[in-house]
Write a structure and sequence with these properties.
This protein is α+β, with helices and mostly antiparallel strands and 110 residues long. It has one domain. It has a 3-stranded antiparallel sheet, with no helix packed on it. The protein has a two-stranded antiparallel ribbon with strand order 1-2. A hairpin with a 2-residue loop joins strand 4 and strand 5.
Length: 110
């Protein structure tokens, strides 16, 4: 399994290009209601979601966007990277001063 972490010190956010790509991948599925309301208000380019920390970091669409765009996937001061997690492992995302790391089976991993 793969998960997305932010190794930068910016808030977990997608660039406008990444958000558009992510949205396109998710259009066959239901976007969270608060996203839909914001998109209808001002469009993708003016939308700065505050709920991105709530994204499932193992979401295959999110992983695809980050792998495709690399460093261009993140918003300001965001440095996404994809971490492989062994299948069946217990994991949590932790952060120190905003820089994220994964705790896998109780052990910190970067």
């Amino acid at each position: 399994m793969k998960i997305v972490l932010n190794a930068g010190d910016g808030d977990f956010s997608l660039s406008a290009r990444a958000f558009e790509l992510y949205s396109a991948l998710r259009m066959q599925q239901q976007l969270p209601t608060q996203w839909t309301e914001k998109l209808l208000e001002g469009g993708v380019r003016s939308f700065r979601p505050h709920c991105l920390r709530e994204l499932d970091r193992a979401d295959s669409d999110l992983i695809a966007v980050v792998e495709k765009l690399g460093l261009d996937a993140g918003g300001p001061d965001v440095q996404f990277h994809v971490l492989d997690v062994p299948d069946g492992a217990a994991w949590k995302i932790r952060d120190v001063c905003g820089i994220e790391y994964a705790e896998i089976n109780g052990k910190p991993m970067m």
